[in-house]
Structure prediction request, 297 residues.
Amino acid sequence: MNVGTNGIVVDQYGNVLLIKRNDTRTFAPPGGALDAGELPPDGAAREVREETGLIVLPVRLAALTYLPLSPHGHLSFTFRCLLRGGEITTSTESPSVGFYKATPLPRRMSSFHRDRLVEGLSHAAERPLFFQHRLSPFNKVARFVLRHVVYRWFDLKRQINKQPPYQSPPQWEVATYLLYANPAGEFLWQRPNEAAPWQLPGGVGIRMGAPWETAVQMARQQTGSTLKPEQLCDVYIGPHGNQLSLVFSASGTAGPGSATTGWFAPGQEPTDCQPHHRQMAARATLTEQPTQFHTLI
Prediction:
């Protein structure tokens, strides 16, 4: 899956920082692909500085969105950021940079960038929104033209100018796990069979789709429970390669129980639990606070 970040930056007059993209010539919040092993807040700060010259501090994840672009899909983290310094500077990817009125936003803007900005600017809760963008027929046609006309022209220009070839962004393995607690404060765990280690419900999606929706389907198959993601608690990078794990609190209805499901309080799990999942359960806070970002070692 492709994973990227965006930064929402607002000045003292309520204007929002936008770039004009060099490929579509549309306006967008600054952002781009997440580098291998990079935490999303760090990626957002890096992209804003590379594309605008401004130094920002990502303070809160406002939205987690999924764009069903074939063949892998695209997951995006949109952060509210504080301006810390720097001077507005254009780049190859952003030939125009400036602050624009948030209401109304410029007309020349893709629907998914508009959605992220509108929702991100109005969302005030500590935990982020999460939703899937809808792709219109126009979006699909525009994507086709970009891939088969515009980007090929860019590749040709790089060859003519003897520049290095374009490096595709890294692909990420994205897993989603659900924390479902009973009244005693114990979390639901599962394992494929009685000889396998215990792990949280969910896992890595095997087909294109929003990760949290895939986790619901997997949890139903694994535990017989009907769960609903409520809040994004934590995001983990690692421990091997380009791996990203999303941990959601969940509500719902527990299944009948079996030898392959169990309820364990944080810190009281059996010894044959996945160690990283034990770490996820121990760190999870179900009360309202900003989503936390960690590196698994």
In short: The first strand starts at residue 2 and ends at 9. The mean pLDDT is 92. Residues 197 and 271 are 9 Å apart (CA to CA).
